[in-house]
Specification:
Length: 290
């Protein structure tokens, strides 16, 4: 006869990821991922604090959930897993399963271990674990028969189950405070990210302004060079015009001087001819004429 606590767990937990879309969560402590929904099951690996996990489903009567961590698959107590509900981080409790779309599943050692743990050392004890995590080969049959109809936690010498014993742990009672701290941390991180983005935008704007100033300075220098070239060309044209005018005046002066000299020569020849014409002629036989 199966242990009462696990008597109803006859189906396979998470037979296929396609059965339901995995919800997202993250570990709130360095927690063991176990091969079944109890701390008595062998540990598969340790999930570091803050690491994301995929939640494939949770048990209805125990706060344990089937999760994926990288390429591993196993069970983690809901008090060590948080997810986001209505923009707040909450621990995985049964009241959040339906709103978060987390399916309620069951667990069977045989099918679950066959699927995920064939290469694990503890797989060779599969048949023993299939009888329940608290069944031990060295237990006396009379003790088993006497306690068969009593809940595990009510049997003499047994501790209360993990889900009940841990309910009074400080971490669980401080859940709302931890949520408030997480919310404050998220807000601070959001403000820091927004401040970083604003600083990045300020740097981009300052860089754009500096580039615009550089472009304006370069444009002003180019315009100044253009003005200087235009001024130099204008001055060259002025010098060429002044030189041409001076050369034209020189040519005019030379032409006027040549004309004056020619006129003077002509006048001199005219005066010489006039004097020659006016000079008395020599009459042969006169005393004045040799």
């Amino acid at each position: 006869m199966k242990k009462i606590l696990f008597g109803a767990m006859t189906l396979v937990a998470g037979l296929s990821p396609a059965l339901a879309e995995a919800a997202e969560g993250y570990a709130t402590a360095n927690v063991n991922m176990r091969s079944g929904p109890s701390t008595s099951y062998p540990a598969v690996t340790v999930i570091p604090n803050g690491t994301p996990v995929e939640i494939h489903g949770c048990l209805a009567d125990l706060p344990w959930c089937d999760v994926s961590f990288y390429n591993g698959r196993g069970w983690v107590a809901g008090r060590y897993v948080q997810t986001v509900y209505q923009r707040n981080r909450v621990y995985l409790e049964p009241r959040y399963y339906r709103p978060l779309g987390i399916p309620t599943i069951t667990f069977s050692v045989g099918n679950y271990w066959d699927r995920y743990y064939r290469d694990r050392p503890f797989y060779r004890d599969r048949d023993r674990w299939d009888r329940g995590p608290d069944r031990r080969p060295d237990r006396r049959p009379d003790r088993v028969d006497r306690d068969r109809d009593r809940p595990d936690w009510a049997r003499p010498g047994r501790d209360r189950p993990d889900w009940d014993r841990d309910r009074d742990r400080p971490d669980w009672n401080r859940g709302p405070d931890r949520i408030d701290r997480d919310r404050d941390r998220d807000r601070n991180q959001a403000r820091e990210r927004e401040r970083d983005r604003e600083q990045a935008r300020d740097r981009d704007r300052e860089r754009d302004r500096e580039q615009a100033r550089d472009r304006n300075r370069e444009r002003d220098r180019e315009q100044a060079r253009d003005r200087n070239r235009d001024r130099d060309r204008e001055q060259a044209r002025d010098r060429n015009r002044d030189r041409d005018r001076e050369q034209a005046r020189d040519r005019d002066r030379n032409r006027d001087d040549a004309r004056d000299r020619s006129r003077d020569r002509n006048d001199a020849r005219s005066r010489d001819g006039e004097r020659e014409r006016n000079r008395p002629r020599c009459v042969p036989g006169t005393p004045d004429c040799p």
